[in-house]
UniProtKB/TrEMBL annotation:
This is Aldehyde dehydrogenase family protein. GO terms for molecular function: oxidoreductase activity, acting on the aldehyde or oxo group of donors, NAD or NADP as acceptor. The lineage of its organism: Bacteria, Bacillati, Bacillota, Bacilli, Bacillales. The keyword Oxidoreductase applies. It comes from the Bacteria.
Length: 488
């Protein structure tokens, strides 16, 4: 039986009006901890709705650019305060809608507030540089200008932080936005947009359109009036974005998969390493692009490390994301649940040794949700699919290494290059790792996940398109540089 906990139907935001879709249809968002519970409804939009949103963003471009960065920052400060005031409510919605535990959901929402404040303060920072000219009587300088209308497509795994780390820099640098969230987390995203709208943004500056990726998302990336697209999600759709954007010669930024390694050397503090591997691999049910998925351990301490890892993994409490003392929630939605179940099977069939977990939980309350136990596979071979493919679930693949060089070679044996950690007390090992590892986020004695909003974020190799999000680095994507030469 379906339980409806909220009557709310969320609308699109187009030109500062909350609009129903032209199809008059809605999509319902379900709770992965209890698949009978509806969290809310969002609009099932089509091309017509998207065209209106893009047109509104086009019309708002000039005036938004002209009011200047300092004034734009005030809207972000206000939105931060509003989001902070709704922190508990929005975190609870997130936990209900995509199964992140309540403490983690609160942490992410607080991070959203901090990101808004960070980019608000960017309003007081410089817009360009003075450069000496070869002509002593001339003035030569650069001026950063907005790109124009930015299309933003986000995934379901960070439904507050990722939208905000794209929307806030887009707006502060003077762009207008059309935002399409992941359908599986669109109610949470709608609440974030409410906070921004309530801050009083002028009409057309931020537009929000929900609906399927294949209709709203595809039309957004193909739209002739968009000047830039930023996307976080799967490799498959990332490639579609890249093709469409490069054909039209517009800017694009992609953040996609990870297969992040952690190396544990023979001199590591094993307690620290075990705790960090568990947190990196299983928090958010392993559904982070920065999650730990391969753990490479030096032979001398392998047995000791694995024994402790198994023991602590077996103590993890899995349950409803809103449950007290629950450490790990469900997979975020049915399709993701099916993917994880499939990989648990693949691991067994490929001949890896199941050391912990590997179960689908179906008893009692568990039967209402998408629950699996945190899983560790040993004896994993580099050619196995569980060693190569992103699972996006709570699954660790363990490998043995003869020495540091072997461990780094194994760590780099992947197409992805987002995040990588090493646990060591040897300064030489850490310096070697920093030099040799092929990853955009390099972490020493710290878990592979965890991003600081004021620092550049992004991957090497097939994970990203080279550009970086967050921190100051975001301005490279959200602005163009004009080089100005002035002769008196
Ligand atoms: N790097 C990361 O952080 C993430 C990686 N992933 C990886 O991707 C896998 C699949 O997850 P999934 O949610 O299906 O990821 P997708 O790449 O399908 O979805 C990400 C976003 O793209 C949208 N989208 C879907 N199809 C199109 C399209 N043709 N054109 C434009 N936009 C589109 C989605 O909309 P809609 O929701 O409406 O389909 C969503 O907003 C995961 O198992 C995981 O491996 C997933 C999420 C985040
Ligand atoms: O580790 C984090 O905090 C960010 C991860 C992320 O960006 C993602 O999973 O998409």
């Amino acid at each position: 039986m379906e339980t409806v906990t909220t009557e709310r139907t969320f609308k699109n935001l187009i030109n500062n009006k909350w609009e129903e879709s032209s199809s008059n249809e809605t999509l319902k968002s379900m709770n992965p901890s209890n698949k009978h519970e509806v969290v809310g409804y969002v609009q099932k939009s089509d091309k017509q709705d998207l065209d209106m949103a893009v047109e509104a963003a086009v019309q708002a471009r000039k005036s938004w650019r002209k009011i200047g960065k300092v004034e734009r920052s005030q809207y972000l400060y206000k939105a931060a305060n509003i989001l902070e005031g709704r922190l508990d409510e929005i975190a609870e919605t997130m936990a209900r809608e995509m199964g992140k535990t309540l403490p983690e959901s609160k942490g992410e929402t607080a991070r959203g507030v901090a990101i808004l404040r960070y980019y608000a303060s960017e309003g007081m920072r410089k817009d360009g540089d003075m450069i000496p000219s070869t002509d002593k009587d001339a003035l030569l300088y650069t001026k950063r200008v907005p790109v124009g209308v930015v299309g933003i497509i986000t995934p379901w795994n960070f439904p507050v932080a990722i939208p905000i780390w794209k929307i806030a820099p887009a707006l502060i640098y003077g762009n207008t936005v059309v935002f399409k969230p992941a359908t599986e987390a669109a109610v949470t995203a709608a609440k974030v947009v409410e906070c921004l709208a309530e801050a009083g943004l002028p009409a057309g500056v931020l537009n929000f359109v929900t609906g399927s990726g294949s209709v709203v998302g595809q039309n957004l990336i193909d739209h002739s009036k968009i000047q830039a697209i930023t996307f976080t999600g799967s490799d498959t759709i990332g490639k579609v974005v890249a093709r469409s954007a490069s054909e039209r010669g517009i800017k694009f930024q992609l953040e996609m998969g990870g297969k992040n390694p952690v190396i544990v050397t023979k001199d590591a503090d094993l307690n620290v390493a075990v705790e960090a591997v568990i947190s990196g691999a299983f928090r958010s049910t392993g559904q982070k692009c920065t999650a730990t998925s391969r753990v490479i351990v030096e032979e001398g301490i392998y047995n000791q490390f694995v024994e402790k890892l198994i023991q602590e993994t077996e103590e993890i409490k899995v349950g409803n994301a809103l449950g007290e003392d629950v450490w790990m929630g469900p997979c975020a939605h049915e399709q993701q649940f099916n993917t994880v179940k499939e990989y648990l099977e693949i691991g067994r069939e490929e001949g890896a040794t199941l050391l912990a977990g590997g179960e689908v939980l179906t008893d009692g309350e568990y039967s209402n949700g998408f629950f699996v136990t945190p899983t560790i596979f040993g004896d994993v071979d580099a050619d196995m699919r569980i060693a190569k493919e992103e699972i996006f679930g709570p699954v660790i693949a363990l490998f043995k290494a003869t020495d540091l060089e072997d461990a780094i070679t194994q760590a780099n044996d992947t197409e992805c290059g987002l995040s990588a950690s090493i646990f060591t007390t040897n300064i030489g090992s850490f310096l070697e790792f920093v030099d040799e590892i092929e990853a955009g986020l390099v972490r020493i004695n710290a878990e592979s996940a965890g991003v600081e909003l004021q620092a550049p974020f992004g991957g090497m190799k097939a994970t990203s398109t080279g550009s970086r999000e967050q921190g100051e680095a975001a301005k490279e994507f959200y602005t163009e540089i004009k080089t100005v030469f002035v002769k008196g």
